[in-house]
Amino acid sequence: MSRTQMDGRDDLKTLQAVWNQLPQEFKTELQQRLLRAIDDRCKRQINSGNYDATVALGELYEDFVGTIADDDRFSDAVPRKVGEDHASHLVFQRLVDELEGRNTILYVYDRQRVRSRVAEVTRYFALLRQRFVGEEYDFTPSLTKMVKMDIQSREKPKWGEDGKRINSIVRDIYQEVKISEPAAEFQEAFDSTGDWQDAIETSLTLVRELCHELGMKGLAKYQGRAFERLYLQSVTDDNDGTARVVTASTGGGKTEAFLFPLLTYALTASQANLNGARALLAYPRTDLCDNQFERVVHYLYTIGELIEDDESSPFNQFPLSVNLQHSSSGKVEIDCPECGGRMSAEEDFECSENPDHVIDYVSTGNRAQADIFITTPDTLHRRLMDPYGQNQFWKRGYPPKFVVLDEVHVYTDQYGMHVANLMRRLKATMRAVAEEQDPVLVASSATISNAEDFTKRIFDAPRAEQIKPYSKKDIEEMDESRSEGLEPELEEIGWEYLVFVKSTEPRTVQIPQGDDVYKPRSEWEEFDETNVTNLSTMIQVAFAFYHTILKERPEDDDTKDKILGFVDSIDSVKRLGDYIHDAEGAGGNDDAGLYSLRKPDAFLPETEQTNPDCPKDLFRGSAADHETAVCEPLPPNPELNPCPVYEAGECWWTLQDDFLESMDVYLHKSGRTETPDGSRVNDDEWDMMVTTSALEVGFDHPSIIGTFQYRAPMNIPGFVQRKGRGGRDPGDQPVSVVVLGTFPEDSFYFHHEELLSNPSDEYLKISLDEENEFVRTQHVVSAIFDYVNVRHQDVSDEIYRRLEIPELIRILEDDRDEIERWLDEAFQSADPDFLEGVLDDLTDYVGLTEMALAPHDQLEEAGGFEKFWEALRIESGTKSKQIEREKEQLQKLLTQFEILQGVNAAGGTDE
């Protein structure tokens, strides 16, 4: 055996001995440090314009030695007879090899330099060309002007053993209850304080068991604070009207922070036999409503199972119910909590796999009563005025206790004005129905910096409190009395990548055909013209992104292989989705499979070779002609084995193995998911989903590893939410790609990319102009109908749905003083003269509908002096009857109008 072989075997034994002694978490930590160091170096080179970024292993090793020099975990693992220098060399090489084996880094050139996988893919973006089947890439137009890369740390709240145990939370709440008085509704419902406390203990115990069943032995500390404050505010008389806003990173558990205390209150109210709703949860998107509805259903199912298994439970029947309301709630589908089959609202939530699996504590639509209502602000706006809301809320003994506005950062501009005024109307109505019951007002968001001010204003609350996980900076800024004993509640869980691609200018490019490819441009006679647009860049980036990015496949975890793309118009969803679908190879046209033009054919088996430009002969070496050509097992070295195709960016080196198949593209728009041909789908077979802001919040698919944004986003908080859709698991390292066009806003964000990758608090402030006179006027009018719906329940239906105008006129005249007090209560900051003016205008307008359509004798032949409101009134009955009635009334109006025109033409009247 040679000396070299002996040294190699000794090194292997030494490495094995040291490696086995290193703690696994320390090895993982070292790998992460090493990868981050490679990424940071590549990032600096890319941002300086060098897209062939590489990192010398020698430089990395120097940093590595410095990292472990004083770490006892390393020195304790090295045997005395083995020097730490030698051991560090061996461990360093092992770490590099493992990273390369996982495809997170690539050896380049002479195996003495490396490049991160994301840097390699970014290189493809930087060199993109517009390709068509059958054309040489030399003449195809470039699509990318510049590329930048950023890396940001990801943090999440500490929970489990590092958080606060459920038992401790329950104990602290109950200790506080013992020295508190019941809330007003419980004082009336329970015979004694002891009964009230027993109901609280039972409810807390059941929710504690729910957490244990869900695998949550401990919550994050901020979740524990939210649980304690919100639940105590709901069941005790210690409710000073403070609104709470829960803020944490995307995926940081905000929902459980308010949902667990809400469910606990609902269970307590159930034991008190309170007649009324328990909670209103409003979400800004119907998709988010559906997502949270399914979450609540599964929580309720688990609660029901726990009750069924407990023979001593005081609940003799299922205690809670949930209702979903929005424009398309009747078509919602959820997973069966028993077997994973599908349940549809259209089938009364009967499982598609097992008809015996039916859940009867859920409902959709505006007729069913429930304990928990999940809806949108727009639907709630109608429920305040119409008979459905009257039956669900105001005819019952108590109005909802919890009012939740999730993803509150969405409520900005006019939408924010709308929601702020809606909250004032809602609170006024709740006080009118049950003055003694104070609501618990809760907001939540991952992307808002002025949380307390905004929450106070949108709820019109006297004060607001932010509940969030404390960072090191938060603790340092606290008073010493508050910060004593506190520790940071956030931990770093890795990082995320952001790549910014700047498109070239839109233009028309000539591509020579036939023999003209060998001639100077001035002599071209035969050529095609192609248009280059911003959308062209996005299409090609979509190919490169999906087919070359690392798709992790952990053995015990979900596959990470989906890309979610965002655009800011429904039209762009369709166009972009169709183009990607067609060019991917699924559209059946001549340009199918464009991604395959970049396959590294000399690396792949002969049967997979589709790259017409791959210079396979350069890499055959001593192989016989019949054997498959094989590239070196690393990207070509321009000095040793140059490959012009790779250097031009037309060989996507990482496009191998499971990346070789066309992706399935789905579109999501207007609340529905469909394929590019328009077929509606509910399966999970998509690889890339193109959508709008509809999936910006609450779409938490575990397999999404990357997102893209086409063109400048509408706002910074929204973009932060969008990139947060990818990589929901702690171990993920998601990639977000932003393709920016040539418009001024695109250029601004490219040159100030930090506003998107790491925005300061200044750019996460949400503005709210709730005093806007035009929006306020609309809501003052609506508030008058709120009053009618609550104070005149016997006739409100006739007024609201059938235009019973005489009755409305009577109420406006007889109840004038009470209506003014109602408006003052709802809009306390508004000028009383303004409120009276709106009421006067509405009264005058309603009075005008008493007038005849046209005051002229000849109209008697067409039906007489019918009043405006009579012509527009819809008779009660079936929809078909209503439609026929509308047709008749419209025809009648047309006839009268034609008669009137004839009279005016003859000079009969100027009316």
UniProtKB/TrEMBL annotation:
Annotated GO MF terms: 3'-5' DNA helicase activity; ATP binding; nucleic acid binding
Pfam families cross-referenced by the UniProt entry: DEAD
Keywords from the UniProt entry: ATP-binding, Helicase, Hydrolase, Nucleotide-binding
Domain Helicase ATP-binding: 235-466
Superkingdom to which the source organism belongs: Archaea
UniProt-listed InterPro entries: DEAD/DEAH_box_helicase_dom (IPR011545), Helicase_ATP-bd (IPR014001), P-loop_NTPase (IPR027417)
Transmembrane segments: none
PROSITE patterns found in the cross-reference section: HELICASE_ATP_BIND_1
GO BP terms in the entry: interstrand cross-link repair; nucleotide-excision repair
Protein name: DEAD/DEAH box helicase
Organism of this sequence: Halopenitus persicus
